[in-house]
Amino acid sequence: MDDLNKALARLAGAPAPAALESIEDRILARIGSRPAVRGAGLGIGVITAAALGIGIVGAELPATASPAVSLAPLGGASPLAPSALLIGEP
């Protein structure tokens, strides 16, 4: 463990490599030279608006009306009883 501590102490005292001095300028210049992508956000917005519209229309369309059924366990035939599910009707 002493070897590791000595090596880290030597590394902390060593000067930074010369290549690292201008690394920020090089990175920012490279980012600035890339073409800007402007149409990507528009495509995602159109897809989102279409999905929202489909959801609203789907929620507003009336579903088929079904009569209210009592699910009381002690009252009459239950529509969820295995016999009713196998036969189709209670």
In short:
This protein is 56% helix and 0% strand. It has 90 residues and is mostly helical. The chain is elongated.
Structure notes:
Helix content is 56%, strand content 0%. It has helices at 2-13, 23-33, 40-60, 82-87. The chain has a domain at 19-56. With 90 residues, it is mainly alpha-helical. The model has no long low-confidence stretch (mean pLDDT 81).
Give a short account of the largest sheet: none
Radius of gyration: 35 Å
The tally of strands reads: 0
**Fraction in beta strands:** under 5%
Task: Compile the SSE list and pairings.
Layout: H1 2-13, H2 23-33, H3 40-60, H4 82-87
Attribute tags:
transmembrane; mainly alpha; 90 residues
